[in-house]
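FAQ

Q: What does a record look like?
A: Structure on top, sequence underneath. For example:
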């Protein structure tokens, strides 16, 4: 009830965006005889709606829209007659930039510091502080996403985790260069690097879309669901024998899209 009502009333699957801002909220509901009263559901709805509204208005972007939310019970959280639920809320924002990476787009695979240059080479270095290759690919995937005409809403969202080693590139010719459709490097092989060239950025942008829009084994798309958003993250795995493995991991949200006769209400 809560998730579907919020998505149908305020969410839009037709809004073009390049950044997806995710936030997580928690709410507790009393459980009596394996059921929750409507009054407690309504109270939880008001609490979560207030959190989403605060998230929306805290964003400085002028061009923004609530896209979807996903509500689920936390495992093993039924204690003292109360159950804890987790809500993930997504608000998309602009502005809209270029569809592909240009000749100055040399990006570090992962960057955790807002004070560190995300640009790692080329004439634009230093620049792109606080960003990295994973985030820039995520932005362009959202920008290039086809938007349905009319009013659509997302219901029943699911999140699929995609890792590089599940999507190898059979056309690879050099170690550590385009070895999979998500960035992945191993320190014991030749060509080990952290800085992605513009050519690599466009390859992994196309690779992310290959995974998003195709079913297994080519991609990760569940049958009958539509792509909503992607959370592309960088990671550094430490393997046995002191092997470093910088990589990208994608968390892809899919949902059922339904037509909505009315535009989304303002938050």
């Amino acid at each position: 009830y809560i998730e579907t009502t919020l998505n149908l009333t305020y969410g839009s699957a037709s809004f073009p965006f390049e950044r997806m801002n995710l936030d997580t909220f928690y709410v507790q509901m009393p459980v009596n005889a394996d059921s929750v009263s409507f009054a407690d559901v309504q109270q939880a709805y008001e609490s979560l709606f207030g959190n989403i509204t605060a998230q929306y208005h805290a964003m400085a972007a002028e061009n923004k829209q609530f896209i979807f939310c996903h509500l689920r019970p936390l495992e093993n959280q039924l204690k003292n007659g109360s159950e804890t639920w987790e809500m993930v809320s997504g608000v998309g924002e602009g502005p809209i930039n270029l569809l592909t990476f240009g000749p100055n787009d040399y990006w570090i695979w992962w960057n955790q510091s807002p004070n560190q240059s995300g640009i790692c080479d080329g004439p634009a270095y230093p620049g792109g502080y606080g960003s990295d290759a994973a985030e820039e690919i995520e932005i362009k995937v959202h920008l290039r996403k086809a938007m349905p005409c009319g009013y659509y809403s997302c219901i029943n969202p699911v999140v699929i985790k995609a890792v590089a080693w599940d999507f190898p590139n059979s056309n690879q010719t050099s170690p550590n260069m385009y070895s999979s459709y998500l960035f992945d490097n191993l320190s014991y092989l030749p060509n080990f690097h952290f800085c992605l060239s513009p050519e690599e950025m466009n390859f992994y942008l196309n690779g992310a879309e290959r995974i998003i829009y195709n079913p297994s084994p080519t991609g990760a798309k569940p049958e009958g669901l539509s792509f909503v958003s992607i959370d592309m993250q960088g990671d550094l795995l430490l393997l046995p024998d002191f092997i470093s493995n910088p990589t990208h991991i994608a968390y892809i949200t899919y949902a059922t899209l339904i037509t909505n006769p009315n535009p989304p209400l303002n938050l």
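Q: Is there anything notable about this one?
A: DSSP finds four helices and eight strands in the chain.
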